[in-house]
Amino acid sequence: MVFPCPNCNETINTSLSQCTYCGTPVDRSAALLSAAETSRISQACSDASYLKIIAWALLACLGLLFIPFLSLAGAVGFWFLRIAVPVMVVRWWIKFGGIKTGDPDFPGAKRAAVIVSVVAVFALFDTLVAVIAALRPHP
């Protein structure tokens, strides 16, 4: 596991007793806590990137609906992702929404989560409208 040195902010391994860059002694328990937090922030950034990918996949599936012979695959993917995107967004916010950090990558991850959240709200609203319209009796 790795963490940023408290003195010089270079990334070092938790097994080291002192920073290889500045020579500052490393407290093992503090290093493990810092490494766990670093790992959590990295996971938040990775999951936010995945959110962007599935949001773009939702749009790609929408585009496939208009291509002959691929429209069935587009329909299946579109309906699945209309549910999966909101679920994944809620999961991200529950798991990582409360992180307070000075990491330079985290604001971009949070911004991506906000943008995909807006897409998810529209996808969920559209899904609810489609289900209600399908269940409504037709004359």
Automatic annotation (TrEMBL):
Protein name according to UniProt: Zinc ribbon domain-containing protein
Transmembrane segments: 50-70, 76-94, 114-135
Species of the source: Granulicella aggregans
Keywords in alphabetical order: Membrane, Transmembrane, Transmembrane helix
